[in-house]
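[Meeting: bench + compute handoff]

Bench side (C.D.) handed over the final construct sequence. Compute side (W.E.) agreed to return the predicted structure before the next meeting so the bench team could plan truncations. Sequence as handed over:
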Amino acid sequence: MIGFTGAALDRAPSERRDSDWLAARRADPRARSLQLSDRGVWIADGRLLLGPPDGSEVFLGLAAQVPLFATDVSSAEPEGGRPAGLRDAAAELPAEEAALAAYAAALLGWHRRHGYCANCGAATNIVDAGHERRCPVCEAHHFPRTDPVVIVRVSDDRDRLLLGRSPHWPPRRYSLLAGFVEPGETLEDAVRREVHEESGIELNDVSYVASQPWPFPSSLMLGFDARAEPGDPPHTADDELEDVRWFERSEIADAAAGRGDLLLAPPYAIARRLIDAWLAPG
């Protein structure tokens, strides 16, 4: 089984709409706020840097009844700690803190990008403790969006794995094929379309495996397993990949162990979890 640790929070969706309840959570002496700026999430000694809420933050939830918030400190960064991009933070923080940082970064990033109404252009107001923006002019409601992305572990009858390489990645890195779900598609249709578009490979069996929030900036990665139909070798069929090919199990195992020339996705990524599960005995 592939598991992904999420932020273990009670998001209190009903209570947080009550301004008195929210004020009491801010006044709780135990309350803490994650510090994030446009340079990343702030960490110190391998842990999240937390400060007291100052009234400008958004509410994340309750962790064992402790109120947690997130504050955008871009205009007045903390004196202690240092900023880290989410990918670096994910490799350094404990899993639950990394999930919490991803949640906070996705929410604050949405606020930075959506200060104005997409319907009429007026400045919007923050409501629902930061989980909604509302237009005071046309009364439109705006919510943080999550874009679904399918990522696919494709194997064949020769026990090989299909990997592709983006021209924007570090040298020698390959990963599973992935792409956004288009309007009107089922997830299974998106899996088949993306793999065919990027490699020319047709699929038969497609099954869901696991998901992972992917706040770069606001996606949900939906992991699938699929078997390739016998046919022609893979080939790049669009301009998104510079190479796509089959890899032998021994090549993948060497890469996972840090040997050989092939580089895989980092351990926190769903791509790597899917690959590691494919390599696992049994």
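W.E. noted at the follow-up: The radius of gyration is 21 Å. C.D. will use this when planning the next construct.
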